User: What shape does this take?
Amino acid sequence: MGVTKTDTYTDQTLTVASIFKALGHPARIAILEFLAKQTTCICGEIVAELPLSQASISRHLVELKAAGLIKGTISGTSVCYCINETHFPLINTFIQQLQTPINTSCCS
Amino acid sequence: MGVTKTDTYTDQTLTVASIFKALGHPARIAILEFLAKQTTCICGEIVAELPLSQASISRHLVELKAAGLIKGTISGTSVCYCINETHFPLINTFIQQLQTPINTSCCS
DNA sequence: ATAATTTATCGTAATATTGCGATATAGTTA
DNA sequence: TAACTATATCGCAATATTACGATAAATTAT
Assistant: This one.
């Protein structure tokens, strides 16, 4: 069905999944990598860097923004996008929680 | 098109994106959370815990396994699934790399 | 005001994902 | 061997995602 039973998961689970989902596309990873290594962050430069159309880049930026992974600041006709670190602790905590050594004896 | 231009991204970018993609569904997050808090890890218990059919759970387990996030060990007729921490450093490194404070002056 | 520039949105087409019932497969037990 | 149990796979239908060209919207420059 392509539909997800969102009612039956905890808010925490849904939030974590939605953040990872936004990170689950190479174009969006490439955008974040680009933003991290650049001193500027104008939308047009991302379009020039990635192998996608301006429309497609814009859609990916919307998704990253909706997930809270970037924030955009209008500056004249262009928009400056930057990484939003807000959810990073959530990601780190989730990964750490998976590392509890309860099951070490199980699949050895 | 729903198709991704995989040729034009680096292997590193594609790998990171595929790991996050596997994490980008609440059922798979719930499976990992379950595996982390249980002392046992039998497939059937996951089916009993989550609001999905056995077939759907199995598909999600295949995806998690393909992404290298779990490993399965056959034990009789049942299968014991455990978290595979192999890729966790990659995730942590990626998140850390996004935290370089180059753009701090940009979107304030 | 008009033109130019930059980004966002719309419409459409193609592919991917998700879910389930049904069935197949593999191992266990009687 | 035959029945049983547990998991995987198939086939299908519905929804989601992705990409692009075209166009709209917003700001700046002439």
